[in-house]
Design brief:
By secondary structure, the protein is of the alpha+beta class. The chain folds into two domains: about 1-110; about 115-240, Alpha-Beta Plaits (2-Layer Sandwich), CATH 3.30.70.1880. The chain is about 55% helix and about 20% strand. It is built from four helices and eight strands; from the N terminus they run αβαββββββααβ. The strands form two sheets. A five-stranded antiparallel β-sheet has the order 3-2-7-1-8. Strands 4-5-6 form a three-stranded antiparallel β-sheet, covered by helices on one side. The chain is rod-shaped and about 190 Å long. The termini are far apart. Belongs to the UPF0749 family. This is YlxW like protein. Pfam families: DUF881. It comes from Sporosarcina newyorkensis 2681.
Length: about 240
């Protein structure tokens, strides 16, 4: 009868120990769950924030790429316009240069500016004749002879022409009066010297073509000589006296 209380006391001690153990385990499990749940929530929040940032960066990157494409297209468009402007400007410069050259050639032909350069000199004189037995008109230089030489020189590319120092152009008036000729109101006696600025290698052969101007002058009993000149200076028409 005395042993039963001892067993009951031991049993209650074990139950108490188990209760304490279970209580401790429960507390540990509860704390662990709470800690894990809190960490998991924080991890979810971090991942959600990172995802949002990533989406934001992706959108910004896409926007920047689209902006870069717009700027690239705009740059290409402006470069094209600049290229077109440069071509147009270059073309206009070339056209302007051509027009300037043409204007200069016209001024030279009109005689409104002095001219200087290489060229050719043609001298024409009356032939010797006996007035008692020969017609003097068949042996003197007429305006037709002078005009024949001047026109041929212009056709061959002469940039300027003068007769006995008198600059002439397409509007000049040349008339024969006996042994002299009148050019734009001024009278000049023989010999008649025609100076023309241009390429001598072109002007001289043009005059000496077979059956051309020089042959025609010789047939008309005109004494004619030609000479290539390294430098000829012609006055402007406005400089005439």
């Amino acid at each position: 009868m005395e042993k039963k209380p001892k067993q009951s006391s031991k049993k209650r001690g074990k139950q108490l120990l188990y209760s304490v153990v279970f209580l401790v385990l429960g507390f540990i499990l509860a704390f662990s769950y709470r800690t894990i749940g809190s960490n998991h929530k924080e991890l979810d929040e971090v991942q959600s924030e990172l995802f949002l940032q990533e989406e934001q960066y992706r959108e910004e990157l896409i926007g920047q790429q689209e902006r870069n494409k717009e700027l690239t297209d705009e740059l290409l468009s402006k470069q094209k316009k600049v290229h077109e402007f440069e071509q147009d400007f270059s073309s206009k410069q070339k056209d302007h240069a051509v027009l300037v050259d043409k204007a200069q050639d016209l001024r030279l032909l009109l005689g409104v500016i002095p001219a200087k350069g290489t060229g050719i000199k043609v001298t024409m004189e009356d032939s010797d004749y006996d007035p008692s037995i020969q017609n003097p008109n068949d042996y003197i230089v007429h305006e037709s002879h002078v005009l024949r030489v001047v026109n041929e020189l212009k056709i061959a590319g002469a940039q300027g022409v003068a007769i006995n120092g008198q600059r002439v152009n397409s509007n000049s008036y040349i008339k024969c009066t006996g042994p002299v000729i009148m050019i734009d109101g001024r009278t000049f006696p023989a010999p008649f010297t025609i100076e023309a600025i241009g390429d001598p290698k072109v002007l001289s052969p043009a005059l000496h073509l077979k059956g051309g101007v020089i042959d025609g002058l010789l047939r008309d009993n005109i004494v004619v000589t030609t000479e290539e000149i390294k430098e000829i200076q012609l006055p402007a028409i406005r400089d005439k006296a």
